[in-house]
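Hi all, long-time lurker, first post. I run a small reading group and we've been trying to get comfortable going from sequence to structure in the token notation. Rather than ask abstract questions, I figured I'd post a concrete chain and ask someone more experienced to write out its structure so we can walk through it together at our next meeting. Sequence below, copied exactly:
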Amino acid sequence: MGAIGRFTISLRLLLALTQMAAVGLGGAVHAVTQLSRTDTTYTRVLEQEAAGMVLVTRAGLHAHNDSRLLQSLFVERDMPARQRILGERDRAQRRFRDAIARAQDVLPKETAALDDIERHFETMFDSGQRIEAALLAGEDERALRMLQEERLPAFESFRRVAQTEVARLHRRMDEISEEATRKAERAWQVTLLTAVLAVLLALFLAAWLLRRTVIAPLDAVAARMRALEAGDDRAPVPGQERADEIGRMARALESFRLAAIERRRLGHEARTDALTGLLNRRALLETLETLAGGATPLLAIAIDLDHFKQANDTHGHATGDALLRAVAQRIRAALRAGDIAGRLGGDEFVVILAGTDEAAEAVAHRLRDTLNGPVEIEGRLLRLGATLGIAALPRDAGTPAGLLEAADQALIRAKRIGRGGVGRAAARAG
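-- Answer (accepted) --
Happy to help. Here is the structure in token form:
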């Protein structure tokens, strides 16, 4: 697209300069007319291909969102929250189908490939419906088995089909661009043969105009493209306000930039707890896997709120959610630089830190003290308190998952003694 846009605008500027120089050669006019027709035809095709590719990419993002929401049903036990997740899944599925339908309108020649993508999604959808029904019926093990044996393979198959179609659209756009460039070059040669005098007379002015109106804007767009390739998607693409080929190219590139931002946002949401913004269990385990094996021992502090269920039952789930958000803020405030906090679910939190047992003890007592303070929710002062358990890797566990389990066992032992304490993991056998 960039080569076509640069070439076409150059010829249009050259035609204007030829007219200013009073060299009204019929051959040049005919050549430029043919070039304009070629450009219009291929630009329209390229715009359709680019729009279709964006729609297929968006459909893939909605399918990923549906899978993420389905997995969150395994963790979420609160029925109103589950109903909210089910509603979000319905919206993601509708948006997927809408994106595919719009892509079929834009790319009528791609109906078979798009139908194939939709069939794979419907296979995922049917599997998701069965998993959803099993979860709502309390059959968690059967739902997990269906997730592993049906849903995940179906999602992987869908992902491969969608990626294949996007790659094919990319190749098609390259082929169209190359064909348009060849035709534009032939028209350019005809124009050169019939308008050499006009080019010579207007060379200086053409160079100035090209630099100002074409090359500099294209360079700016190319710079943003290189930045996007390097992972920098912060700044919008310049030149979108233009009505010419450069503007269309800039707007198409902006669509890809926004899609990249959306993909990054979805990836962030998959690693964080939606209510508190802390890391979720998956992200905590990934972090522990990354940090394990270092020279400094890793420690986990499991945190359980002592009176959360009573407050939640007495004042309602909205108050309970507000309490959990307030607790998350207090945990963040009590940590040192480099410490990591996450929520495992319900009123269970965990802190990961590197250092000595003494450092972990100090952090645990600071957490306990800050969580013992009253929390004001809608004008009411509520007291929760917390019991904590500490475990170390590799002393108390051999794996990241084992570390979290050891910290939880230490917390349970502390509760047996009395709420509000800080327990330590028992010595590991062997």
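A couple of things your group might point at:
Residues 281-424 form a domain with the Alpha-Beta Plaits fold (CATH 3.30.70.270).
Residues 297 and 385 are 28 Å apart (CA to CA).
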